[in-house]
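User: Structure with pyridoxal-5'-phosphate, tokens only please.
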Amino acid sequence: MRGCPAVTGLEKGIAVDVKQHSSQPLEIYDRHIFSQSKSYRAHAVNHLAYGVSSTPRASQLPFPVVIDHAEGVHVTDVDGNTYLDYSLGYGPLLLGHTPKPVLEAVQRELSKGLRTASIHRGEARLADLIAELVPSGAQSAFVSSGSEAIQLALRVARAATERNAIAKFRANYHGWFDNLHIANSIGNDGAATIGQDPDASQSVELFDWGTLEGLSERLDTRFAAVIVEPAAINAGCFAPPEGFLQVLRDITRRLGIVLIFDEVITGFRLALGGAQQRYGVTPDLSVLGKALGAGLPIGAVSGQREVMQVIASGRLLHRGTFNGNPVSLGAGISCLETLKAEQATLYPRIDRIGNAIAAHVNAEARAHGTPVFAQNVGPCVQLFAGVTQMDGMADLAKVDRSLILCLTSKLLQQGIYTLPRGLMYVSSVHSDGDLAFTKQAISTAIAHFAQGLEANR
Ligand SMILES: Cc1ncc(COP(=O)(O)O)c(C=O)c1O
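Assistant:
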């Protein structure tokens, strides 16, 4: 990989016992750090296609580690290495890996039988909580993942408006179904993978996120919906520019277009009421997932009554064997009750830790004169490599994605587990001790990264 320092230390073996050394200098042990992960992978690829259940998981460097167990905010791999986790299972684990109330709720539900697909009291309870906490959430409909919820939201919008066109923003991600799995990155407006039906996205028109240019000229009464990540976390943690969401709200209201906020990541994370609460703009429909289930599979479309009327009246078919399963909903209820009880301290703390991580990365990168940059929206932090600043989404073209994998591999070697693509999520159980450990690990990782770049010149 270009510019990525050789991983000789790793081949020899470096393991960090994060729990024991939380605020002390990192301990480095001489053992074969990934031998069990490696033999797992060698076996897994025989019958498990690509050896993983979601393609990006295989991209982790220096090697995709296999997790054995987790506790609080730590994960331990099959070789016995413990990491401080900032991947949070790709986002859902806002309360960490083992939140007591959620585990108890799950066990309570399981003790009543699996009851999948039966009507149960948890459904209305979770919908009530969403209505209380999410400004646009008067009525909800549950599914089992964020991707499914996105599809349901589009169907609701089309039914409510009797229109077809959908406006999507470049570099916003809305799940893996063909119609919206396009223009996921700057510079590629097409399908994100081979095998997609090119006709599926015919009614989707692309816009540039964060700019008002072209919006009022191109949006018209052909559009059923504008769908947007209100803070563009998938693109690299971009906060919405001043006025952007409000203008979207004004235009869509004027033209009778359904405004959909995809809050699968931002929901319950940027504020208890999500990005819509943080930025003070209420959409017609919100798509929720990830943190809503605290780690169990769930998705929801939560919207204002006028729009949700198409489901509420029974006219629109909303189907799915696993929709509203009691175990996921039990976890969701307990998660929202916990967030509600802890909101006064929880949200300021996760924001503060997110800010501190980004600031520390940037200070260290400057000190080493190395092309690394971090930006965050509250508890979501994106690490970039190949650039020293980011002035908007156009700058994404300058980012070196293979160098990000290299940087995150350096962090992994220091006991920090991020998403391989450089996204970090702060949970409610990351402590100030964890922050101190993280800063130290970042300093070492950036020093190693800078040395490696220098050596490769
Ligand atoms: C903003 C956003 N929307 C939708 C999805 C799809 O959710 P899921 O992976 O649960 O299908 C994701 C997943 O990462 C997401 O980040």
